[in-house]
Amino acid sequence: MILLEVHNRIIEELLTTQIETFLRKEKLVEIKTDVVDFDGALYHITSSRDKPFNVSIKLKFYRDIEQYGTDEVLRREYGDLLVTPLEGYNVTLSLDFNNQLPKGDTNEAWLPLVRKIAMLKRNCFAAVFEKYFEFQSKQEPTTGNHKRAVIHYRDDETMYVDASSDRVIVIFSTVFKDADDNIIGRVFMEVSRTLVYKQEPTTGNHKRAVIHYRDDETMYVDASSDRVIVIFSTVFKDADDNIIGRVFMEEFKERRRQFQQAPQVIVSYRTPPEELKDMPDARTGDNIGYLTFVLFPRHTKAAARDNTINLIHTLRNYFHYHIKCCKAHLHAHMRHKTNEFLRRLQLARPEVKKNFRRGATNAAGDAPAGLE
């Protein structure tokens, strides 16, 4: 299994090409394109000879995450690259090659900036996690007045993130689109059922973050004195996704036995976990799944924080990406087996012998009688 990149490669490659062209003092290629990313993210990219390189992003859930300090995080990361958003978009970055490009003799001088711009979506997501990591690091007792993060990251799947002082819990709801997904997904999720964990009553004054990062999926984030809880809801769109998805979810339990330093993972099907019992809008159904991640101080400390954010915010995409890969592998294997069976049947087919009757000829080689 592979980890998905946290940056957008199309943005990175386009910007790298434009900068290299500019440094060679060649004419810049005019760019005007739209790029679609995971979670319904839409980028609009423009660049020309006499205008800056502009990247705008539109997120359906931006209003959900904005209240957790997204604007402050973006100002910290991008500074004067941040400009007034393009109409219809949430954030716009503008890079003037003449004035804002880092100086240096090698590309190592400006490549970090290119990567940072390509991580725009990740940095929008980062604010909610950083906020709840801070709640945890300060060991603020929770009182139930803080908001759990609820992110509807798909039309019918949700991610929930909650936090306490020593962990962050992430719960995904997921929809299994077909019967096979439902079966395999439930197998994955059932493996971790014995790890069921109930959060102690919250006693702090912060609200649980609720991020609707897809139209039908939400992320919840909450914190207590010893943990941060992140909950993703996810929807399995078809039965095959449901089956395979549950198999994957159950695998988390087995993996944690090998890696004791990994976050605790709690899996639930059909109904929300205990942490969401006070959330009336949490989805239920046979094709709904919840993934809860309990993050402890070792995961949220300053040295590990960025890596934790990189991994946790791509969890839903990572999960469904590998469901699709598994289905593709199964389909390819079935096609291979079908071709093999057809080949064997062809080899087993009896050969038909054809009999030809030849007419007798006379010694002179004349045609037989009656054929003149």
From TrEMBL:
Whom does it interact with, and what assembly results? Component of the Arp2/3 complex.
Looking at the record's lineage, which domain of life comes first?
Answer: Eukaryota
Q: Which PANTHER family match?
A: ACTIN-RELATED PROTEIN 2_3 COMPLEX SUBUNIT 2, ARP2/3 COMPLEX 34 KDA SUBUNIT
One Gene Ontology cellular component term attached to this UniProt record is:
Arp2/3 protein complex
The UniProt keywords, alphabetically, are: Actin-binding, Cytoplasm, Cytoskeleton
Taken from the record, one Pfam family name reads: P34-Arc
Main localisation, per the record?
Answer: cytoplasm
Q: Describe its function.
A: Functions as actin-binding component of the Arp2/3 complex which is involved in regulation of actin polymerization and together with an activating nucleation-promoting factor (NPF) mediates the formation of branched actin networks.
Which terms does the UniProt entry file under GO BP?
actin filament polymerization; Arp2/3 complex-mediated actin nucleation
> Key word Cytoplasm present in the record?
yes
- Report the locations given in the UniProt record: Cytoplasm, Cytoskeleton
UniProt record similarity statement: Belongs to the ARPC2 family.
GO MF terms here are: actin filament binding; structural constituent of cytoskeleton
Write down what this protein is called.
Arp2/3 complex 34 kDa subunit
Organism encoding this protein: Adineta steineri
